[in-house]
Amino acid sequence: MPKIPVMSAVVEVLKSEGVDIVYGCPGAAILPLYKAMEQDGGIAHLIVRHEEGATHMADGWSRTTGNVGVAIGTSGPAGTNMITGLYTAQADSVPIICVTGQAATSKLHQEAFQAVDIVEIARPVTKWAVQVKEAAQAPWIFREAFRRARSGRPGPVLIDLPIDVQKQLVEWDAEIDAPLPVTPVEPHAPRVERALDLLLEAERPLILAGGGVILADAHEELRELAELLQVPVQATLMGKGSFDEDHPLYAGMTGIQTSQRYGNASFLESDLVLALGARFGDRHTGELDVYREGRRFVHVDIDPTQIGKVFGPDLGVVSDTRLFLRAITDLARERGVTGAPGAWTERVRELKATLTRREDFDDTPIKAPRIYKEINEFYSSDTYFVTAIGLYQIWGGQHQKAPKPRHYQVCGQAGPLGWEIPAAIGVKTALARTEPDAEVVGIVGDYSFQFLVEELAVAAQYRIPFVLIMINNEYLGLIRMAEDHGGYAMEYEVDIHYDATGSDNVKIMEAYGCSGRRVLEPGEIRPALEWARKEAERTSRPVLVEIMIERESNTANGVRIDAMNEYEPLPEPTA
């Protein structure tokens, strides 16, 4: 077997695992890997301005393709800068691999320059964190990293590469090598039967589609089961896009923030919930005694440790979501079971038609729901959206429609500010081969925009076009609301303005070679979106539409921060 540089073997492994682009920043301790990428070719590389940005780009790429994204950094602070991205990927079950350089193994105990035990630092926020100690292990560790990232509940892996290990030769033949198999998690047949029995016994059942439906690419199977049995479907925030929100059986979102009024109401009237790949996060459940009262739960999850973590369900099923849906649908057909629209589906449709929130505001300053009305009407179902944390995440959950899976990307659990710009880069580059003309839109707040704004330079350098829609209330709206209405009776350090306007976001865009426009009136929103689309096409760079909205919004258009466990439908927001 031929001897080749160990990093060349690693590059061959990356290519065979489906990696066509990586995001990173070279440094002295990772240069052998970069040399191998230069010599061997086949993998594109974007040089980032901050290693956290690299992790979020890999994250956006992974959420879009369903494959394992890769971020690379050198030693020391490069790895510690990646921790936020690793945590984000772990929290949202996103498979990425972060590769870090490291000081020579002989120097690790001597506090060498930029030598830090990144494996121990990363261990709590990864599925696996490992340092390669022998060169011959490297190709196999990378193979195992991809297997672990994909297996069960997907998630992140960190691989640390000492510089001396990177410089060695190993015996490796790519011609006789292949990815390690991932074992499918099949459902246990008796539990599938019991799940169907419970579903058929219920008078008012709901299917709750979590992020696991999207991760398993099970949206078609979900629709098939729902239509066969005529069971209404709700989605969690991470499951948004798994079921067309215009479908007659769509029953909204339940929760204390990202929810619809009709979603909360229909959930409270249900008597059984079939939860698919959902974690029962606290922003979804609120007070558990209210959430659970009067209904039974069947919890299906690929990760057995998720079942019973928040509360014990009436039935737990360990399974890949798609395999479970196929099994229960086949079983229903074997039994000759079909459903028909009845009193329960009609009741859900009635709630959906009546318990709505206003969006047709013509007020100045602009009200946020009007923005989402324009977004829903202007962009097609093929558009890819990214959004992060804050009031705009709540408004997005309440108002924005997501008809297709993997087209609405949101960092749901960790919620790192600054995620949108690098994630949009990851999404757009993921589409470069399959959908080069697809529109990518990031919805961002004025504060989050500033956290990783330097990654605009990456998009400008590599000519990666996307549109940023900034919803700007000129201060930290969600934090201010929490201070004011969360029992603290304070408004402390929530104003980020140091002159009349604070940061001029349009000028920031221009400084990075991009374009921007500010919107003050509701009637300007649609023309600005049309301009942004054309400008992004013309320049092949990011374009900003900054929309100035009302500052004071004590109920956040239906969200009461001082009533986190409120499930009764809230009153219509006033004009």
UniProtKB/TrEMBL annotation:
Q: Where is each Thiamine pyrophosphate enzyme TPP-binding domain found?
A: 389-547
Question: Does this entry carry the keyword Lyase?
Answer: yes
Q: Do you know which Pfam families this protein is assigned to?
A: TPP_enzyme_C, TPP_enzyme_M, TPP_enzyme_N
Q: Which residues form the Thiamine pyrophosphate enzyme N-terminal TPP-binding domain?
A: 7-120
Alphabetically, the GO molecular function entries are: tartronate-semialdehyde synthase activity
Q: Could you tell me which InterPro entries the record lists for this protein?
A: DHS-like_NAD/FAD-binding_dom, THDP-binding, Thiamin_PyroP_enz_cen_dom, Thiamin_PyroP_enz_TPP-bd_dom, TPP_enz, TPP_enzyme_TPP-bd
Protein keywords: Lyase, Thiamine pyrophosphate
Q: Where is the Thiamine pyrophosphate enzyme central domain?
A: 192-328
* EC number(s) given by UniProt: 4.1.1.47
Q: Domain of life of the organism in this record?
A: Bacteria
PANTHER family recorded for this chain? GLYOXYLATE CARBOLIGASE, THIAMINE PYROPHOSPHATE ENZYMES
- Family listed: Belongs to the TPP enzyme family.
Q: Know the name of this protein? A: Glyoxylate carboligase
Instruction: Name the gene for this chain.
Output: gcl
